[in-house]
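sorry for the late reply, my laptop died twice this morning and i had to redo everyting from scratch. anyway the thing you sent over, i finally got around to it. pasting the sequence first so we're on the same page, its 171 residues, then the predicted structure underneath. double check i copied it right bc i was rushing
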Amino acid sequence: MKYGVVAFPSKKLQDLANAYRKRYDPHYALITPHMTVKGVFEADEQEIKDVAKAIKAITNKHNPFELNVSKVNSFAPITNTIYFKAELNDALAELHKDLNSNLPGNAPEFTFVPHVTIAQKLTSGEHDDIIGQLKMIGVDHSETIDRLHLLYQLEDGSWTVYETFRLDEDN
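ok and here's the structure:
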């Protein structure tokens, strides 16, 4: 089964992301707006119990972190994905590193760019038509993220929460 670790932003940021995702993201119905902290990996029923214990140990060592979303950006020309870019701070970088070092799966293929996807699988023409407009509208949002979620993928391609982990505020 496929799993991943994400942070869900507040309803305010999710609503803003969904305003674009409805039109520009074919995965709109499959998963709530999120920031991936540990990309997709595979595990069986026994392995995922060990993974959950490892995530619990990791979240016990990390404080909640600030999520500051300050602009709209794109991964073009690699992919025609448009996203709300979150600032990479030390707390988030360490959490990402810890999860990727201690959980199954391959090392990340790309440098970690914390973000919330708002458009993907666009043609080059679609991408070019909307990226400038979205950059002009922009985004400015800050909040504290105090929990992570281990998700799993269902047969229909949608994702749902397996377990939620609170980041330890006493560190």
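DSSP finds four helices and eight strands in the chain.
thats about all i looked at so far, will dig more tmrw
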